Amino acid sequence: MKAEFSLFFIIEVIGTIAFASSGAMVAIKKQLDLLGVVVLGVTTAVGGGLLRDIIIGNVPPAMFQDPLYVLLAFFTVMILFIIVRHNQRILAGRSIETYEKVMNIFDAVGLGAFTVVGIDTAILSGYGEYHFLIIFLGVITGVGGGILRDIMAGQTPYVLRKHIYACASIAGAILYAGLLEHINGNAAMLIGACSVVLIRVLATRFCWNLPTATQKN
Amino acid sequence: MKAEFSLFFIIEVIGTIAFASSGAMVAIKKQLDLLGVVVLGVTTAVGGGLLRDIIIGNVPPAMFQDPLYVLLAFFTVMILFIIVRHNQRILAGRSIETYEKVMNIFDAVGLGAFTVVGIDTAILSGYGEYHFLIIFLGVITGVGGGILRDIMAGQTPYVLRKHIYACASIAGAILYAGLLEHINGNAAMLIGACSVVLIRVLATRFCWNLPTATQKN
Amino acid sequence: MKAEFSLFFIIEVIGTIAFASSGAMVAIKKQLDLLGVVVLGVTTAVGGGLLRDIIIGNVPPAMFQDPLYVLLAFFTVMILFIIVRHNQRILAGRSIETYEKVMNIFDAVGLGAFTVVGIDTAILSGYGEYHFLIIFLGVITGVGGGILRDIMAGQTPYVLRKHIYACASIAGAILYAGLLEHINGNAAMLIGACSVVLIRVLATRFCWNLPTATQKN
Q: What's the number of domains chain B is made of?
């Protein structure tokens, strides 16, 4: 997961912070203890990449080769824990709304970054020919951490329930994989990642949802 | 998972359709959206094989080498989704009973097929000597998709609760692995698969259940 | 997981029995049937090692190379099942308290044994240089079985909720990995394992808990 140019490094950092925060908040709301908060936060941040590496047999997984993102997730979680602990009314106040809006955008950035990084890792591991595989690995890198978070927290995975979340990742992954054969790699990566962010932000703003088979519609 | 002779291909197709349908129905009943229905349906159909390939380090996993079964599961789920969406009373009507009876038999066929395919894959990957491993892999190929479905849907895995489900798979796996050393491979495979189907159908018909440690008995 | 000297073999046996029992008791309390009890019991006992082997690509995983611990877990579970079934009041009586006290100590021994075995396996597989990885693998070998048990049983993983459980494993893992570079391997292993047991026993005795971010404190 070594960043190849600095812009990309920055958006991966933003994504890691956002994912770690989302895991930590789920744990805090469930009143898990410090360790639970750390585990859920770090799992959300690096779990998607871990699943990807397990599926393609990357040994040892990237999170262990360069623990930078694990450390970043860890410190994010610790800071969040300390802030909430020393100012518990923060969870009910108006600042939480602002926080969630900012985090939603950060989370979209993370989803975009992780999706294209997942595809990139798969291609670098020599699976560029398997189009379905690389798209799947991009999506699992993007949404896998959140799935693990929700399974461990005992709630139906968010990705199965709401707001065009995995769909944004799938669309960006297909776009990136498709563009790769026609244009410069970095440009394709940026377009893929940005399209994920755009779809997510629009979906949240306008409450887009996929249809369900019964009732609600 | 390439089928070696056409009969076997047909029963794998039947199994895939049944497993995908069972995942999709769980998602529909939980009112998940279209993506949730697709993810649970496809996971149920190919998740067992994915777990098997992860355990024995088959890279990339069979579902990516030949996406036929993923596509088949996808289209099965889409058709089911469209049918339910356009005729919602179908979930309450009498036709659902017939549907569930047919699907139970299809599901038994799938369990049988996937169990022996799992063993076959393990042997072809060179683990024929590890008897416990190949039986385990046969069973995990058969029941793993359903376990992933239930974990993602937040319910206690069906396989842990009812009706001689995993037991049928275990019995068939042991039978196939045992017969392999004495008779022709294809014959052993058919006998193994059929015994799974037979045990499942009889267990459902006569409500066989394993004992529990407390109360109910 | 072959034991290298007999003391170590004994504590691994104790750990396997304790872990298998804890899984079986969860299943019995959830009124799962015999198969559910066996699956949860065996998963708790060997699941941590399986996760470790999947992450570092040990193929086939240790539990299949030497099924001794699987068999031991299986017989432990069967005996427990038979005892509870033939004397159901045992679950309410005073003997259950003694049983739980003994099992808590056994469980601490298991946690200590599995943690250092996990690190050892990682080092033998050639990952001694990756300090974070070997500590992680030690902890996952120690707590992974319990996490799988709780996910399958549909409850928030125990390790995320209570009593300095994973923390004991983490502390012992760091201690073992740190000492390894300075003192004899067997001595380091013993000290690492004993420190896990000590922390766990003290934590249970004095109800140590990690802080939570909200309310309780």
A: 1
